[in-house]
Amino acid sequence: MTALNISSMGLAGTVPPEVGNLSFLVSLDMGSNYFHGNLPHELSGLRRLKFISLSSNNFTGAIPMWFGHFPELQVLALYDNDFTGLIPSSISNLSKLKHLDFRGNSLRGKIPEQIGNLQSLKFLNLEINQLTGSIPLSIFNISTMEKVGFTCNNLSGTLPVDLCRHLPNLRKIALSFNQIHGQIPSSLSQCSQLERHTHDGVYILPIYHFSQTGSFHERSAILGTSRNLG
């Protein structure tokens, strides 16, 4: 057995440390249960994992630094829990990571600049947290990125003028309900894969509705309304 899937089974309690003895696991899915508490350090020994989902539980505490010690990891889903503290910079060690989903927690502080080292990343969702500061420019240099979400944080700053220059595969970007200001980058037209919707024959770019003031607010009706990343 290389996969353990106990998702949606109504399980409760804390994660037994003995799970860390299953060193042969490639996939671990414990999502949509009622697990709570901190994650046991013993899980750090599961170095063969390619897929981890602990989503939709009641886990608390900081996201452990040892999540950056899984050399084969491609999917890390910790969404809809109550993790607190900072996003660990060790995540940047996951060179094969394609899918990172931390939405719906209570994470704070700045987004680590080192996330830009994840040059295989296609999906990044940090929505509905308490993150502050600017979005690292390094994230806009991940050429594999297809979907990215920062909605419902306290992020500030501006977007890079050449936002689409290094994102040829970008399909969706969600930025609403932050404190981002300035002009909407004209380079959005260069995102050839960005999904477009039509309304009365007019193309609408779905960068999702902005709650900001100034130029973002003025153009939000033209550029789309909030939707899930999906």
Automatic annotation (TrEMBL):
InterPro entries in the record: Leu-rich_rpt, LRR_dom_sf, RLP_Defense
Domain of life per record: Eukaryota
Pfam families assigned to the protein according to its UniProt record, in alphabetical order: LRR_1, LRR_8
Name of the protein in question: Uncharacterized protein
Organism field: Coffea arabica
Gene behind this protein: LOC140012818
